Amino acid sequence: xxxxxxxxxxxxxxxxxxxxxxxxxxxxxxxxxxxxxxxxxxxxxxxxxxxxxxxxxxxxxxxxxxxxxxxxxxxxxxxxxxxxxxxxxxxxxxxxxxxxxxxxxxxxxxxxxxxxxxxxxxxxxxxxxxxxxxxxxxxxxxxxxxxxxxxxxxxxxxxxxxxxxxxxxxxxx
Amino acid sequence: xxxxxxxxxxxxxxxxxxxxxxxxxxxxxxxxxxxxxxxxxxxxxxxxxxxxxxxxxxxxxxxxxxxxxxxxxxxxxxxxxxxxxxxxxxxxxxxxxxxxxxxxxxxxxxxxxxxxxxxxxxxxxxxxxxxxxxxxxxxxxxxxxxxxxxxxxxxxxxxxxxxxxxxxxxxxx
DNA sequence: TTATCTATGTATAAAAC
DNA sequence: TGTTTTATACATAGATA
Lengths: 173, 173
Hints:
Organism (chains A, B): Raphanus sativus
Strand order of the largest sheet of chain A: 1-2
CATH superfamily of one domain in chain A: Transcription factor, MADS-box
Oligomer: homodimer
Number of helices of chain A: 4
CATH topology of one domain in chain A: SRF-like
Keywords (chains A, B): Activator, Developmental protein, Differentiation, DNA-binding, Flowering, Nucleus, Transcription, Transcription regulation
GO biological process, one term (chains A, B): specification of floral organ identity
Number of strands of chain A: 2
Structural class of chain A: mainly alpha
GO molecular function, one term (chains A, B): RNA polymerase II transcription regulatory region sequence-specific DNA binding
Protein name (chains A, B): Floral homeotic protein PISTILLATA-like isoform X2
């Protein structure tokens, strides 16, 4: 074309290639706009230069998302379902983790323990005992702090008399 | 062009419009292919005729999905995120639920309880006590059953002393 | 880059099949 | 519809700024 016909193959001269790209890209977008107007067509066009820079055109009458929905319907090709699948898998994974946490939690609260065998049951018991110890230790710390505060305070100590419930049971252990 | 210049506005004659569409669509796709080859460009092109029929072209070096990923990155526009948003919200919701379960679990095990106030600490304690009661009740049942079985067995008790096998699920420590 | 300048090669409007 | 024909209008390669 122009000052000489060219073969349709990669333009080796980098400068020519870039210049030609720029011209033809403009031409392509222009043509896309024209067919849109002239023929009531819907056109979406995305162009990446070899340097990564992007140019795009989408007809005003339909947005790209709608175009792509239609594309998927008509072509049968999936564009984002693989992405959906990954998210769904993630959801499944977390839900399972969630379920097992819920179960463990119920066990520690003494619920659903009929499904446990003796060994697991004893493990649960020990976990609970350990937790109880720590909770009581902590309560005690709370109270000690409170009492010390009361002593250092001016007024009366009625709040300081409030001791933890701490009913100690002895099971068989 | 051709036998007469035309204005770039909708071609009112339906027949002309369709014929022109067909010609220009072919021209557009041809140009898209050419720039792809000549300039190392990546091009995606989707065209819908007013009758709904679709024509598309995508450069061989990148599939449409990848093109669109790149499009989203570079343009900042969301194509399918509304669809994804729901799934992502679901994931967030479950993750939060998960976190709160984990925290509750740690509390019941006596961990991280320094962050609790006295009232919550006592609530935890009561939950633990309740769980412990139930666990011990259940253990007791186990043993009673076992003892009864031993009594009812004919031979020597050595097989009867064998405690449940305990195929173990872990996590109670 | 982008714009302008030309000579050429292409695309295509209109018509007819 | 799709193709061919043909006259014109456009696009653009290469050079230059």
